[in-house]
Design goal:
heterodimer, A: eight-stranded mixed sheet, B: mainly alpha
Chain lengths: ~220, ~240
Amino acid sequence: MSLLRELPPSLGTSTAKPDEPQPDTKILVAVQSVYVDPLPPTIRLDDCNFSDVRSFTCGRANQKEERWERDVSEWIKDPGPSGALYADRMGEAEVYLYYEGNHLIGYGSIGVETWKDIENGEVIGRVSVLPYAGIHTNFRGQGGPPERRYGRRILGGLIEEVDRRAANPWLFLYVDPENPARNLYPLFGFEVYDEWPDDTGNGRIWLRMRRRVPTYRS
Amino acid sequence: MSLVFGGLYLLQTVAKIIDPLSEKSTIKAHDDNNRKRIGEEISAALTLLHLTASSSLEVTNMPATIPLGQADREKIDRELDQIRKQMRVDESEFSDVQAKEQAEYRRKMKEKAQHFLRLFEEYLGVYDLLLAANKAWRSRVFRGEEPFDLKVDSTLRNLFAVWNTLSDPMRQRAEYHVRHNLCDDKLTPLVGKLVVNSDNARRVYLTWESPALSSSPALRTVKVPKDQITKARELFAK
């Protein structure tokens, strides 16, 4: 539950007196406010289960997918060299699928990003990233109260996995500025780092959000 | 009488042995002195038998009986005994030569096998290099560190095909060395590796897919512009 130590104090509402030990109470309250029962990333995307994601959508039911929703669904469905399957196969990312019974409820991914000086190619550092994560249309908003919803539990499981590995000092997310989920991420300890223009020249701007990996030791 | 015909047969056989045109002559030809000496002994034996060298070859025309005295017979026996002994010595020497030649042949084959073993290891190493180069290039393209280049793409693909084409003759040669136990079992596991690598190379070649830039911005290398270097360094300094 390293995540909880990173939460802003405002999220924890302790009623204990100043002299009494408080951390446990604060943590408990914080857990209940963000997520419970994180889903650990265990089932990797591969050639065998790729058919499960071929028709993946993450937009609202009976509605056209938004741009940021298309990003998420097209990446996981792409069998080509720029998609999720290839990224996993080449060791560029780890893509995990989550199931409820036989039904795919969503996916998540973990990767590493290198920062280089554009002038001389020198490596400045590396950060962990969550390239994309999404909940299948049929399971959006499902699971119970907010802290039990699949989206939060998947995200919580991914963050805890990154904390457990403690491979890099930061965890980054690239979020479409219009994606309402940008308001959810601060609950998980993310903050806006900057706005980053997509380097493919497509004119898109990404909101880069960062979260310190508390377990990381250089 | 049987002794005479036996002797004649023996002489013919010896003649055949020393005949440079006979199939075994190559072995005896190594020792000219022996050949000369045996030739002389044959002539002597033929003289004893009252036969000429030419008539000795006409075995079918030989008279059924040859009048010989006791002394002659004893002399013939002695001479034939000597010839038999000499032949045993020659055979023994021949075996030694043969053994030495075989040992030398085996030594040379082992030398060749060792050379082949090194070549084989290098050949397997080339595949590992090829795999690493392919992976590194794909990774650079995927992360946007290098633009996709069709020339590099086709070169790499062809290299896998060329490597795979050579792998079958290499395997056959390796299996020959393994069969003849010339590499002290060092080749056996390498042959297994070759078979696996060959299958992989064929699969890579046949299912070749050119790399492309990652569609997820989070998996591309961040090229930090000059005006943001300080901020980026601070990020990692904390």
